[in-house]
Amino acid sequence: MRFRRPLILAAAALTVFAVGGCTSDKPSTTTAADTGAGAAQTAAASTAPASGTGEQSKFFVQADYDAQLAMRSQTAEGPADKPWEQAIAPQMVSTAEYKKDGPYHLCFSNAAVDNPWRQVGWKTMQAEVALHKEISELTALDAEGKDDKQISDISELQAKGCDALIVSPNTTATLTPAVKGACGKVPVIVFDRGVETDCPVTFIKPIGGYAFGADAAEFLVEKVPAGGKILALRISPGVDVLETRWSAAKVAFDASGLQVVGVEFTDGDAAKAKGIVNDYIQRHGKLDGVWMDSGATSVAVAEAFEDAGMPVPPMTGEDQQDFLRKWKDDGLTAVAPTYPTYQWRTPIIAALKILKGEEVPKTWNLPQPKITAENLDRYLQPNMPPLHYALCGCEGMPGFPEKWGGK
Amino acid sequence: MTPNVLAGSRTRFAALANPTSVVFLALAGVILVGWALVAVDGGQFLTMETVVGVQQRSAALGIVAVGQTLAIMAGSLDLSVAYLISLTSLVAAVTMAGQDSNIVLAVGAVMGVSALVGLVNGLMISKLRVHAFIATLGVSLIIKGILSDLYDGPAGRVPESFQHLGYDRLGPVPVSALLWAAVALVAWFLLRRTKYGYRVYAVGGDVEVARLSGIRTDRVIVVTHVLCSLCAGIAGLLLASRLGAGAPTVGTDGGYDLESIAAVVLGGTALAGGRGGVAGTVGGVLLLAVLDSVFNQLEVNSFFKDVVRGVVIVVAVAVYARRTGLAGRRRT
Amino acid sequence: MRRALPILVVLAVLLAAIAIVNPFFIEPAGFLSFVRRAAPLVILAAGQYLVIVAGEFDLSVGSLVTVEVVVAARLIDGDEAATWPVLALLIVLGLVVGLVNGAVTTLLRVPSFITTLGMMLVLSGAVFLWTGGAPRGALSQAFRMFGRQTGWAVLILVVVAVAAVVLMRANFGRTLIAVGDNERAAALSGVRVTRVRIIAFTLSGLSAAVAGILLGGFAGVSAQVGQGLEFQAITAVVLGGVVLGGGRGTVVAAMAGAFTLEALFTLLNLYGVSGALKFTVQGVILIAAVAAGAIRLPFLDAPKVKGDAHAVS
């Protein structure tokens, strides 16, 4: 009996096709023009091998780099006390075609919640939703870091009767077809990582990775005397938003008199980062500066110098509380560029604007502050957990600080 | 070989003693409970989108798990499938380079690469007598190194026509699910209707006895690993078609190594080999996918999902162990 | 000790190669800092050895390490006074997780690969369910001391190593190997197989707790601290010549395997082997070591014609 079962299943399957007919969920045809938006103009690597920074990343796009560095000094438009509503050099687009009456059902396809940055952001987004009575529901699916699941999630969400779809893509290239598929049916808002199509109504991001990497590198160029030895610590290769950070730093280091003695990957693991720094101290006797593409392991790096009985050289971090506290307590020479988590508020605000027919920027460039010795006290929050990101823009929201793990 | 040998004395429980029946009963149970829970939550569970979603979500894992079933049935296992999937998705997308004319070449290249990896796995396990766990773990490290040396992000492009594999459907059944069904049917046929299948059961049951009874056990192991890797290659092709490109992390992000093993044992195949089958694995994969879908509908936190998944897998295998335990002692 | 000889030779060669590139390595401070860094993996390898030699696997140790660190941070929350009670609790937690692994594997007859795979999912899910997705709280200075100060870490390592060797020389060690070699024969000769296996799992849980305390101390709170450690520990044990499937190998060799793995990482870093190909080298060495062992062993000691080179449990 059990031998026959698959045959029965097959027969059942055939019947189903006969009844069902043929359909495709494939997104509409791609035109050659909108794929690989920046790839074509990728700059040939600017070479300066003597500085030890290696080849320029293939993700480097000169035009984007120039634009981001320029944006750092531009003034953002919008309410000064609400950076998540501000936009730098906005090119407004009309959204009249999406105007409809509330209440609104928003949907969100989230790449993952697997790190503290995304956790803080996700809590902030939920709090933002709670602020708006006209939102009846937010349906959110977590792709758990899997491209394939996010593709299924996006198509599943289209069946939920959403008025707007927010997407935080797990990977730029591979999520593009799915986002394109959704664009025809519902207004789409993309934030954090982009997609290779301009079909979303708006794409929300802070200034970007080039500005982050340049902010950190320029600080070291300023603080470390010429000829100084710099160690660059990166999380992992091949992640677009991290590649841009490093490639901008590389440009800055190549133009400086600093010597980059190593570029290493930490996987975001504090123990590994500490070990790497330890190795470099042993091999080179000392290091004069540490550049980092994110703050997750900054404290471990500072401790590596302490454990070796050395002063901590100028270094860079991010807006996580553990690093800010270390910086304050030990009087480090440091800078913390940010990739603000308040950008998780903006998609909700954008969705409501779109559904009410108000204009939104095509590319919504949020300001991207950097924490320096001067403004450190403003961002240090002793009551918040060590991995909380200071730039959540969540201080005034209901439930703060408990909802974010503070006390 | 089957627990049904005791059926004479326990006729009433015969169906329950068969893990395949248990897993399909559990599947029906989960669908019912899920439907009820989602209904209480104010949603609809058995919509077209959910049904299609469950199949889309399980197709790639299902194909890998069918291959993994063969390996486990033969008393082996394959930890290298996750990295092999990443590798083959890249081989496919890079070879195609967006051109329809390259599809055949790309499929051939993927099959070639997969067969080679399977051959290496099989030879190391059978000829060099390296434990399958270590051999395939070592191979996955080797592939990981090659991947991160050659690629630093998604690469290649799959032509439009090839994406039909990942997105088209016939009524409620996606083409990807058909592909899975086809792979499962072939594996079922091999296991149940051919001499090779008989030998797999024999080798997985007791490799010494199999050898003494004249089976060339080494050859069985090698063929099994080639087939297992080919399944991973097919899954890589399917994922490349879904993503429109190859991605060096698609296999590991999906956790296809441990998850496929979990699905196989959830389907009632004994981890020690020699007992089980493809039908159970299909049930196991569907069970995981339906659970996922219920969680998705209820927007359950992904950490809670992990807890439930872990408990379900262990409980299921404990249940099978109780049922079959009466028929024979645990093999060590 | 004869069994441990090959891995000790390999280790000596690797250490010498490191010393050539980095003279600081032979100075006490340099060498001790290497030992400190290797300590968590060596301790995990000792625990994993007990399980493997009994014919089982423990895949849950990586996530158990993460759980220990995250739980410690949340419960201590920067309060020095909480250090000792929490340390005691962490040890108990490790023992309990190991006990559950052992009980499910032996009493419910679930293959350990599946038991500990399930435990891995449950642990990593449960701990972040409890902390709301990301670690919170902070470790105290007293807690950090064990992993951060070389002296403490090395001392703990020595204690664990001595305890493991003594344990394996005692009656328990002999019965453990007998169980892994041939369960049925051991049972017939009066060994309480179930109890021996459960103890092995419990001790593996304990080793993960100690490793977690050291790792948390070394680098602070992190959600990734235990990632992949289970496979590294198994790799280390196997490198030491311990046979998966049970019954063969010594705990000294397993710990030497862990040192070797750590030395290999250090060496590859020192020689600047591109980060990417590092994995490939690691994979080749792993397979080569086991293949070499499998081919040589039959001549070394003839018995145990079990032919289970590919059997899982």
TrEMBL record, chain A:
It comes from the Bacteria. Keywords: Signal. Residues 1-18 form the signal peptide. GO terms for molecular function: carbohydrate binding. Residues 108-359 form the Periplasmic binding protein domain. It is found in: Cell envelope. Coiled coil: none annotated. InterPro entries: Peripla_BP_I, SBP_2_dom. Transmembrane segments: none annotated. GO terms for cellular component: cell envelope. Its main location: other. PANTHER family: D-ALLOSE-BINDING PERIPLASMIC PROTEIN-RELATED (PTHR46847:SF1). Belongs to the bacterial solute-binding protein 2 family. This is ABC transporter substrate-binding protein. It comes from Microbispora hainanensis.
Automatic annotation (TrEMBL), chain B:
The keyword Transferase does not apply. One of its GO terms (cellular component) is plasma membrane. One of its GO terms (molecular function) is transmembrane transporter activity. It is a multi-pass membrane protein. It is found in: Cell membrane. The keyword Membrane applies. It comes from the Bacteria. Keywords: Cell membrane, Membrane, Transmembrane, Transmembrane helix. The chain crosses the membrane at residues 20-40, 60-83, 103-125, 132-151, 171-191, 220-241, 303-321. Its main location: membrane. PANTHER family: ABC TRANSPORTER PERMEASE PROTEIN YPHD-RELATED-RELATED (PTHR32196). This is ABC transporter permease. It comes from Microbispora hainanensis.
From TrEMBL, chain C:
It is a multi-pass membrane protein. Pfam families: BPD_transp_2. The chain crosses the membrane at residues 29-52, 82-100, 112-130, 150-168, 198-219, 251-273, 279-299. One of its GO terms (cellular component) is plasma membrane. InterPro entries: ABC_transp_permease. One of its GO terms (molecular function) is transmembrane transporter activity. CDD domains: TM_PBP1_transp_AraH_like (cd06579). It is found in: Cell membrane. It comes from the Bacteria. Keywords: Cell membrane, Membrane, Transmembrane, Transmembrane helix. This is ABC transporter permease. It comes from Microbispora hainanensis.
